[in-house]
Structure formats: C-alpha cells, structure tokens
Amino acid sequence: MNDRRRTTEAPTEHGAEPLRSECHPVRSRGRQVPLDLRLQIQRILADEGPMTLDRLLRSLVSDSDPAAAVMSLCREGLLELDPQSDPVGPSTVVRSRT
Fold first, then answer.
1. Which of 19, 29, 33, 38 has a CA between 20 and 30 Å from the CA of residue 67?
2. Are the beta carbons of 18 and 9 closer than 8 angstroms?
3. Which burial class, exposed, middle or buried, applies to 64 when counting CB atoms under 10 A from its CB (0-12, 13-18, 19+)?
4. Helix/strand/coil (H, E, C) string of 23-54?
5. Cα end-to-end span (Å), the chain
6. Residues in Cβ contact with 44 at an 8 Å cutoff, skipping those fewer than 6 apart
7. Domain ranges for the chain
8. What is the pLDDT of residues 7-59, one digit of tens each?
C-alpha cells in the first residue's frame, strides 16, 4: 500500500486506532479563532453558500491567519470541507455546518 500520510497508533478503550494528525491540517491541534474572524467566516458562508477554500480565504480581512482559522472551525465541527478533496487545496469546497 502506498500511503503518503504517516500513520501512528493511538491507544483507545477499544484497542489501537491509526491517526493521521501530523499530516492532515483539519486534524491538527485547534487554535483560538478571533471572534471577528469567526463571525466573518460564518456570515460569508451563510450569505453566499458553499464556496472554494481559495474564494473564502480571499474574502476574509484579518490580521490572523485565515487558513488556520478555517481549519480550526472545521475541527470544531462548524465548517465542513468536501470529503472528496484529498489533499485539501484551493479548489476544496467549504460549507457551514450551522
């Protein structure tokens, strides 16, 4: 099997499960997203609907890293990335889950 992503084993109550946290940005450790950026992202997606990651990031105005904010909101379950996009890139579709 030729898997580009490195997997590790994590112990759980049901045995070991593979993790891909080092390679997948959505599964990386969450960051604090500033309230103004969080609201801006949610408002844009509510007003315009699902859009590509590139378009969403270009729509945002912030001193914070907008890509990290989007990934953190995905991890929190507020946003969803198109599961067919692997790896995540500019054409990945982002939608609100709220």
1. 19
2. yes
3. middle
4. CCHHHCCCCCCCHHHHHHHHHHHHHHCCEEHH
5. 37
6. 51, 56, 59, 60
7. 19-96
8. 444 444 545 444 443 334 444 455 689 999 999 999 999 999 999 999 999 99
3-state secondary structure of 70: helix
Distance of CA 40 to the CA centre of its chain: 16
Q: CATH classification of 19-96 is 1.10.10, yes or no?
A: yes
pLDDT of res. 71: 93
Confirm if 90 and 41 have CB atoms less than 8 A apart: no
Per-residue model confidence as pLDDT tens digits over 74-93: 999 999 999 887 788 999 99
Let me know: does 10 contact 19? Beta carbons within 8 Å. yes
